């Protein structure tokens, strides 16, 4: 493969005629050279060495091949915090911050919260970092994902109890004031699974290999046995699933069932409260 960037190319030239989207180009430049965004401006006349040009060329080619920028640099910001990410976990996305905000509004002082399918730990770590008084437990069936999540908790000084668990199996007999989840909700065969960043992310964290609702059904069915009286269940889901998830909650007797929209106007999170008629 011929080099995409020649030795001696200046930072100014790389930014005037980027090979990638300007934002991706800037992120990869900073990462490859180990410099800040400010340095891209103040060192605009800097010429790349042969090693730097080769390193940047490799990163650019991988991005042109579709690999997510977050995986290339190994990090992504979420809820104002820095998270380590890699192919074992989904890349945290801004729309999931809505789930964190809704959870914080409903989390009582010294409350107990359970994050199911924690992945990178983004939700659990954001909650524990923002509310250090809370008792945060996070579950995942993937041991590799839990390793990433533990690193992120340590990186952000968050106190989270991590458990290897197939949904509720590791928390039998335990109750929580709040249960949150961003489970696999893309239906098998959905074209999005073969497009963009999703091609590189762990498929088991994206799709339930069924109709997109099977994980949500499991969470809804099991939550009443683990929710304190009046405790909330909040779940992220697909852009077209809010009505179906509301129906699942209502059929199980949850109270105050409703959906909330993200900044793009998409019904992104649906939840309900454990009421007197909630089936256990």
UniProtKB/TrEMBL annotation:
<dbReference type="InterPro" id="IPR050320">
    <property type="entry name" value="N5-glutamine_MTase"/>
</dbReference>
<dbReference type="InterPro" id="IPR007848">
    <property type="entry name" value="Small_mtfrase_dom"/>
</dbReference>
<keyword id="KW-0489">Methyltransferase</keyword>
<feature type="binding site">
    <location>
        <position position="182"/>
    </location>
    <ligand>
        <name>S-adenosyl-L-methionine</name>
    </ligand>
</feature>
<keyword id="KW-0949">S-adenosyl-L-methionine</keyword>
<keyword id="KW-0808">Transferase</keyword>
<dbReference type="InterPro" id="IPR004556">
    <property type="entry name" value="HemK-like"/>
</dbReference>
<dbReference type="Pfam" id="PF05175">
    <property type="entry name" value="MTS"/>
</dbReference>
<feature type="binding site">
    <location>
        <begin position="182"/>
        <end position="185"/>
    </location>
    <ligand>
        <name>substrate</name>
    </ligand>
</feature>
<feature type="binding site">
    <location>
        <position position="167"/>
    </location>
    <ligand>
        <name>S-adenosyl-L-methionine</name>
    </ligand>
</feature>
<feature type="domain" description="Methyltransferase small">
    <location>
        <begin position="96"/>
        <end position="190"/>
    </location>
</feature>
<dbReference type="GO" id="GO:0102559">
    <property type="term" value="F:peptide chain release factor N(5)-glutamine methyltransferase activity"/>
</dbReference>
<protein>
    <recommendedName>
        <fullName>Release factor glutamine methyltransferase</fullName>
        <ecNumber>2.1.1.297</ecNumber>
    </recommendedName>
</protein>
<dbReference type="InterPro" id="IPR029063">
    <property type="entry name" value="SAM-dependent_MTases_sf"/>
</dbReference>
<dbReference type="InterPro" id="IPR040758">
    <property type="entry name" value="PrmC_N"/>
</dbReference>
<dbReference type="GO" id="GO:0032259">
    <property type="term" value="P:methylation"/>
</dbReference>
<dbReference type="InterPro" id="IPR019874">
    <property type="entry name" value="RF_methyltr_PrmC"/>
</dbReference>
<feature type="binding site">
    <location>
        <position position="140"/>
    </location>
    <ligand>
        <name>S-adenosyl-L-methionine</name>
    </ligand>
</feature>
<feature type="domain" description="Release factor glutamine methyltransferase N-terminal">
    <location>
        <begin position="23"/>
        <end position="74"/>
    </location>
</feature>
<dbReference type="GO" id="GO:0003676">
    <property type="term" value="F:nucleic acid binding"/>
</dbReference>
<dbReference type="InterPro" id="IPR002052">
    <property type="entry name" value="DNA_methylase_N6_adenine_CS"/>
</dbReference>
<feature type="binding site">
    <location>
        <begin position="117"/>
        <end position="121"/>
    </location>
    <ligand>
        <name>S-adenosyl-L-methionine</name>
    </ligand>
</feature>
<comment type="similarity">
    <text>Belongs to the protein N5-glutamine methyltransferase family. PrmC subfamily.</text>
</comment>
<dbReference type="Pfam" id="PF17827">
    <property type="entry name" value="PrmC_N"/>
</dbReference>
<comment type="function">
    <text>Methylates the class 1 translation termination release factors RF1/PrfA and RF2/PrfB on the glutamine residue of the universally conserved GGQ motif.</text>
</comment>
């Amino acid at each position: 493969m011929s080099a995409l960037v020649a030795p001696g190319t200046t930072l100014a030239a790389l930014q005037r005629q980027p090979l990638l989207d300007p934002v991706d180009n800037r992120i990869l430049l900073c990462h490859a050279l180990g410099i800040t965004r400010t340095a891209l401006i103040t060192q605009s006349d800097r010429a790349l060495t042969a090693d730097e040009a080769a390193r940047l060329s490799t990163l650019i080619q991988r991005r042109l091949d579709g690999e997510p920028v977050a995986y290339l640099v190994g990090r992504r910001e979420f809820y104002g915090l820095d998270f380590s990410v890699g192919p074992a976990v989904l890349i945290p996305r801004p729309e999931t911050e809505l789930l964190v905000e809704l959870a914080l509004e409903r989390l009582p002082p010294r409350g107990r919260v359970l994050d199911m399918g924690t992945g990178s730990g983004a939700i659990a770590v954001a909650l524990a970092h923002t509310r250090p008084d809370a008792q945060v437990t996070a579950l995942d069936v993937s041991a590799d994902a839990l390793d990433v999540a533990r690193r992120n908790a340590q990186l952000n000084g968050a106190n989270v109890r991590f458990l290897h668990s197939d949904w509720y199996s590791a928390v039998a007999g335990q109750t929580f004031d709040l249960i949150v989840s961003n489970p696999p909700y893309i239906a098998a065969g959905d074209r999005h699974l073969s497009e963009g960043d999703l091609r590189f992310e762990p498929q088991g964290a994206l799709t339930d290999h069924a109709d997109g609702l099977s994980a949500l059904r499991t969470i809804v069915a099991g939550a009443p046995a683990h929710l304190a009286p009046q405790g909330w269940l909040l779940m992220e889901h697909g852009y077209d699933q809010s009505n179906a998830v509301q129906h699942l909650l209502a059929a199980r007797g949850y109270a105050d069932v409703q959906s909330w929209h993200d900044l793009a106007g998409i019904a992104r999170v649906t939840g309900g409260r454990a009421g007197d008629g909630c089936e256990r």
